[in-house]
Sequence to fold (186 residues):
Amino acid sequence: MKAFKYIIKKQEIDLDIVRVTILSEEEYEHSKHVIQPIYEWWWLRSPGIIRRNAGCVLYNGSLLHTSVDRDSGCVRPALQVLNLQPLNLKISDKIDLAGYTWTVISENLILCDSPVGKTAFRNNWQADNANIYEASDLKKWVKKWAAEKGILITQKEKHNVLQDKKKGKNKNGKRKDFITLDYLLS
Fold:
């Protein structure tokens, strides 16, 4: 868990972030009335009906399943947090965090109002678990983005980031410029 300072109503407050993820279809359906629309499609973590597909939200708010290897899908991270209720935050309140505006969409979940990038859900659509978020390239992408923004969640996740850094190279063989150990442990 990482305590992260954020600003709401011109007041700086600690926010205990438990997990960085993207929304499921169920979370989207439950909260779509307060979710800021964007004019591009974006990934959900829910698998599609067939192995090759995963869930997404279209620009008009409709749900769809599309091929996991489409690299034009937007990423809208969601943060699961512990302490929204004591802070008197209500559903639809806005939070400035890590250079982005986020919306409170449930009593313990905030969603980034804008996409933070585009990527495929899974580059290898033929893998047995191609549409499972936990095994996806998208999850790795989200974790890397969160690490670069300083939104690291648990000691285990910090350890995983350090392991990636020790490997030292990305899949193209180029050096990874990640974040420093001093930053991770601070």
